[in-house]
Amino acid sequence: MTEIKRHIISALVYNKPGVLARISTLFAARGYNIDSLAVGETENPEVSRMTIVVRGDEKILEQVEKQLNKLIDVIKVYEFSKVDHIERDLVLIKINANNKNRAEIIEIAEIFRAKIVDVSHQTLVLEITGDEDKLTAFINLVKPYGIKELIRTGVIAISRGG
Amino acid sequence: MSTENKINVSSQEKTGAEILVESLRKENVEIMFGIPGGAVLPIFDKLYDCKDIRFILTRHEQAAAHMADGYARATGKVGVCIATSGPGATNLTTGIATAYMDSIPIVAFTGQVATHLIGNDAFQEADTTGITRPITKHNFLVKNVTELSTVIQQAFYIASTGRPGPVLIDLPVDVQRAKTNFVWHKNVDLPSYKPTYKGHPLQIKKLVDAINSAKQPILYVGGGVITSNACDVLKELAEKVHIPVTTTLMAIGSFPPEHELNLGMLGMHGTVYANLAMQNADLIIAVGARFDDRCTGKLAAFAPKAKHIAHIDIDPTSISKNVVADIPVVGDCKLVLQDILKLVQPKKHTDWIKQINKWKQENPLTYKKDNKLRPQYIIEEINNLTKGNAIVVTEVGQHQMWAAQYYKPKGPRKFLSSGGLGTMGFGFPAAIGAKLGKPEETVIVIAGDGSFQMNIQELATAVVNRINVIVCIINNGYLGMVRQWQELFYNKRYSQSYLCSKKFGKLHCEPVPDFVEVAKGYKAEGYRVTKKEDVVPTLKKAFRVKDKPVVIDFWIEEEENVFPMVPAGAALDEIITSLA
Ligand SMILES: Cc1ncc(C[n+]2csc(CCOP(=O)(O)OP(=O)(O)O)c2C)c(N)n1
Ligand SMILES: [Mg+2]
Fold first, then answer.
1. In this predicted model, what pLDDT tens digit does every residue of B261-303 receive, in sequence order?
2. How many of the other CB atoms lie within 10 Å of CB of B579?
3. Which of A58, B191, B393, B398 is spaced 20 to 30 Å from B459 by Cα?
4. Chain A nearest-CA residue for B140
5. Are A29 and B134 an interchain contact pair (Cβ–Cβ within 8 Å)?
6. Which atom of ligand 1 is nearest to the CA of B447?
7. What is the DSSP letter of B499?
8. ipTM score here?
9. Residue B411 C-alpha to ligand 2 middle, in angstroms?
10. Do B201-362 and B375-555 show the same overall fold?
11. Which residues of chain A fall below pLDDT 50?
């Protein structure tokens, strides 16, 4: 068996009711695990793009791509690890913060270019975007302060150049 | 679809129900199966005046789907069925799933509650497109009557092209009543659906090279060969390069039964020689087959000597799903085989065929030939009397496997069986559908006493419509296949597999029901056979009946087993050939 890797798959689909259900049914029925799924309209309002992060070996990846392509409402499927690309994920994170450590946390936030979007006596809410590595590093650094809540949009990706 | 492609057939407005009927005409539908109900009444009102599409009223919607399926399997055309919303639609699902697993083209229409009620738990509402999403090739919920004709046209196209399969159209009752112009297109253009028909030349070249250098090749053939009408090319290729052929359950009939190169069926209840040939082959060429677990046995021990595994299939997802193919060829089986045929060198594999013939002699398909009434004998006699020209349709269980082993159809579309889903209750209604599609053929059901009862009510449909199918019940008083597994793997603990009312240790002491009386109750013919010598005369008598169904209740040896058998999870060459 080949090694388990993270794959970013992007599917262009018709913007029709039931398409999201079709894709999630497919993943559930075949036992593929989804890390994240992000959906939104593209430059063409009739077409949506779904960015799906899955974990699996090459064989699973190949099946996922083929199975997606087989769906009638799916126009095109790409796998991003094969092309030069930019990926982004947005995280909102609520951290325990008091008068003693607030400055420290803000300092970390600045290094990572995270935005402070809410401040209270006991908490700070930070917004940060980036790729997987950056987000993981940041989350690990703030974990000791106590994460009260963490929400992510899921990865979206775009290829570089023309 | 582009505007040039549109042919505006009428400027007069039509209702959704009228558009449906008109679209079916355009698709050359000659017959449909179903049951009416509240959410499809506008359609049935239009069908009342429609004289050119025959309607077969079934007694259960599951049977309507199986009939559409059987019609499609026998004719190669798209089968059509219809049911009302809610329970009508859920009753269709077993039939739809059966067709899906075996890649059979059917179009199913279901009524739906009015669009403004959808999602309100209205009377007889079910989320039909949600329920059927994983068991259809595609489905549609039509919320606007202006889409209807286009959707129907797309549905027939999707169902019948590429790897065929069932398509469902869910039609809210208000859409059936709404009016619009009828629009029809010259051809269907779906930019996101373009099956690959022509095989890639480089892959074909690789496969040709592999064939040219193979010493012990085998063709492992599945239902795709029948779907793509590739049987003649298959024979030419097998003969030109002298390659033995083994078929899956779905491909029985695709290769001449008495041909020297025919190894019969492979897999769990396949012939010993087919399985040995697979395990010893240096090149496996899978054609329209999908390496189902019933065919491969234990995957880790599958085909240990194969240097190359080639896989020709129109569905890319079938390739390298279970067994990795190092020579994948995506394309239509017939077109790809034709390309290969042109390029390969004629060859003789004398030693390989000699080895296979030795296996054949050492391990023939056989059974105890005494004077007891044995199921294999019945099927052999059916084969003798029909000379393999009848369409045989099976239910699911031991009788299905005996039919697969001993019936030798002369040609494709003459052995119809629920392969992928293994649906008890499929056979009888599918046979009715097949007979309606091929009225000139003799149609015989090999049924189990368990399976037949899952759609026995269709005797009424057959009698009322004067449909002549011969149902041969291989009556063992058991859910026999379950009993066989319990005998072999669960210490003979026959938990819930005995169908008779009480067992006093006597053969068939109290079979329930009395199938002959049931047949008569439905005004069909009913005969009973308990002795070997009565088999042929009774079959001959049955063949003389022309205008109604015949039920023959064969009381066979109760605890007969299906052999050879590769137990689930064992390697293909770990074969049980009889009870020790
Ligand atoms: C709808 C359905 N339910 C259950 C099964 C499981 N099953 C497989 S074979 C079988 C027994 C079939 O009995 P019968 O029709 O009498 O055939 P026999 O094996 O006795 O020839 C059963 C219950 C099935 N395949 N389909
Ligand atoms: Mg039985």
1. 999 999 999 999 999 999 999 999 999 999 999 999 999 999 9
2. 9
3. B398
4. A18
5. yes
6. 15
7. -
8. 0.89
9. 28
10. yes
11. none
